[in-house]
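Minutes, structural biology subgroup

Action item carried over from last meeting: produce the structure token record for Mannan endo-1,6-alpha-mannosidase (Schizothecium vesticola). EB confirmed the sequence was re-checked against the source entry. Recorded below for completeness.
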Amino acid sequence: MKFVKSVHPALLVAAALPRDLKVNDVVSVKGVARTIAAGAMSYYSGTPDKFVDLPAPYYWWQMGAFTGSMLDYSHYTGDTTYDQTIATALLAQVGPDFDYMSPAHAGQEGNDDQAMWGFSVMAAAERNFPQPRPDIPSWLQLSENIWNSLAARWDPSTCAGGLRWQIFASNPNGLDYKNTVSNGGFFQLSARLARATGNETYAQWATKVWDWTVAVGMIDANYNVHDGASASANCTDTNPLTFSYTSGIYLYGAAAMADVTGGDARWVERATRLVGATRAFFGPFANATNIMYEAACEEVDRCTTDMRSFKAYTARFMWASTLYVPSLVPAVEELLHTSAAAASKACTGGVDGTTCGQKWYVNGFDGKTGLGEEMSALETIQGLLVAGSKRPLKGGDIKVVREFRGVVGEPAAPAAMSHR
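Output recorded by EB:
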């Protein structure tokens, strides 16, 4: 691999203690993000040359989600320290058909898992993230392959459509369930590909999936996004359980469609209403106003390993949506500025005083630690930099980059590009 070396002193930001976060200070935000990113990466033992699965209890899908958090870190802060490691991880999992259908993880891969990897691959395409292997298709083509794989499993035999949670009959747990995270993932990828490629087919599918989700009641009149329903019941038994990240997934898809359609009022309203509905995941108590929490599990200490990372994706997509629908900025900042400040106080555990906890509303570290806690704090805090970031690329601006920017530990430098 070839590297272009260039030093930009303005980007050389020292790591900072999370407890010292100043939410309106770019240097402070970057310094705290750098500290938390290092904490997150401590859970991953892969290298720039070798992919390694996350250790138990983390499932394969969370590795895909984790790469997305680290892509965001590189994009928002300009710190390319981990770029080679993340690229290697993403490329190691493409599968024999280049669609992230991994034979090694077939026993656990569902449609939502594939979509989670798709979010990261799509982000790599939208940012011209380096793809150093000419034997593997471009990030954009990989994203389209994932979309084709998901589209092929759209199932009109029950509920007049929708994706099931699971893919393989060998994994019956969830095979009868059509869930919003799978369908929301397909919706969001459709919207982002519509924007990136200009292909109307993707936009038509985004509209189709949105309309289906509303028609079966998984998005209700108040824009709450419910968990799913049974195919065998023709989706008449909607599970009212709600998680923050499903709202975030649909929100970013709606915001992308607002951009695709030139600000169509329907999509702007949908994005706006979804942000309003996410308020259900902020402020568990009167003295914790606007602090994010996973309402389904945090207060009763029943969050699974998966659930402990959901706030990461909620924050990621809330921040990103403001780039497409600027009118969302006041509401998103009201919620996430407070949450970022609370998260920074939660990242004060461990021997180094920088380990992140789960509950942000306790005004400190709660003793619950893990990759999900690190990712949630990281995405919420680094998203404070979104206004100064570049919008996702589209059309001819999306190219294949073969060279990494800078060297490990140094900031970004212009990279050589070649057309896809």
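Discussion: Confidence is low (pLDDT under 50) at residues 1-10, 407-420.
Next step: EB to file the record with the rest of the batch.
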